[in-house]
Amino acid sequence: MINEKRLKQEAKLLKKNNDSLNQAQALDIVARKYGYSSWPDVSKELKKQAVEGIPLPSISTNFVEYNEVEMSDKDYEVYDQERASDLQLEQKLLLRSNTVALTKLGVEFSLFEPTQTGLNKSILDATQSVRDHFELEEFHYYFQQEQGVIRKEVSYLVNPNEIKEIVGSFYRPKTKQGDPRMWYRQLPKFATAGDQIAIVIYQGSPHLINLSRIDLEVELQNPYSQIYKLITNYINKEFSYSAELLNKIKELAIKPFKAQRSGDTAIGYTLETLLGIDANSSKDPDYHGIEIKSGRGGKNRTTLFAQVSDWNLSPCGCKEVDFTKGSSAKILDRYGYEREDDFKLYCTVSTQRQNSQGLHFIFNKQKDQLEEWYRNEELVAVWPAKLLKKRLIEKHSETFWVQAKSFKESGEEFFQLERIVHTKAPVLSQLIPLICSGVITMDHLIKRSGKTGRVTEKGPLFKIDKRNLELLFPEPIEINLKNEIHNV
Question: Where is the MvaI/BcnI restriction endonuclease domain (predicted)?
Fold first, then answer.
């Protein structure tokens, strides 16, 4: 496995010892040392590693488990052969490429995977991500639908050469659970078991695209493709004030500037001060609706937003007047550790594994909420999905992710602004899937001071690797502050 940080450090040392080399040349030399033709080949391999480490959600066959369809012995033989492991790497790479293409363009979509049993029985589970998407687009609200009532709507199967009109059915069966179901006529001619199907709601109707059978980057270059026509007609978004802010930041990037405070917040505080933005703890975006996220260049993870759990739903919540601090203190007391003079809980929480404190995430599909658990035994905190989505869109309707190089002169820190990644409205339907796959994680930063006994919390901070911004935000634009502008 490639260690990107180590290779870049090696290239940096090589450049330092050879003044005739620039950074790109040094990276290419290091790449060839490890058997790659150039650094871009290393970057491709790093992307493969990242994709390989993100598992796909398991298949959903609740309709079988809840006895909603009649099953013969032969049917159960088919059911036993359904996908139980992750997809092959090449399939995942194609899916990643296609979902990134949709996200870059700001297309709201959800994914479902038909099973062979579902195709044979003409039934699909409407998973939580699909239901969220339908509600987001105001297409269908399963929670308002009576059991046994079937809603039928015109839907479309979208291929490169044709858009075929079909009928989609959306219902809750008359069973004890009454879980949401759906079906699209002629789906077995459009997809096989294991295919990844995107649903795009356009002009009030579901349009299905089989992401396992096409390369969207190719289709989006072909004006005769029906997929190209659909996506082109879908997108049309404009935002203001960004040119004004960009010009101000470009002026600041002409020369380095001195940090006006120390610590992790130094770059953010200093940049906003120089831009004339008052420091405050407001949850609102910083500049006419545009959020500014600043960071030193060496860090990969960046904060999307801070959001406390819903204390009314969280076992570690308490009903005291100052309930936020009280709840944080309660979590700290149960799961924290001593570090020097302080008592801390500094850790990252993910859906993929328990951390060293025994904490991890589980997404509760039935209740549509993100839950933090201790060793699968004790529920710690709860974030309703709607709360997280509301927070994301509040914070990032438009964002400048500013990267700065940090250096010291005479013991004082200076910053040189290097680049901006400009993103627009996030694709909300992808937030929960990205949390479930471990792409988005959360950091606890709770501390009780050994001197004052006071408990403080800087989070919880929901974070994403900067390299994965394209999975959440449509068409990120990278702006080199030496006036080079290109699409990420």
Answer: 246-473
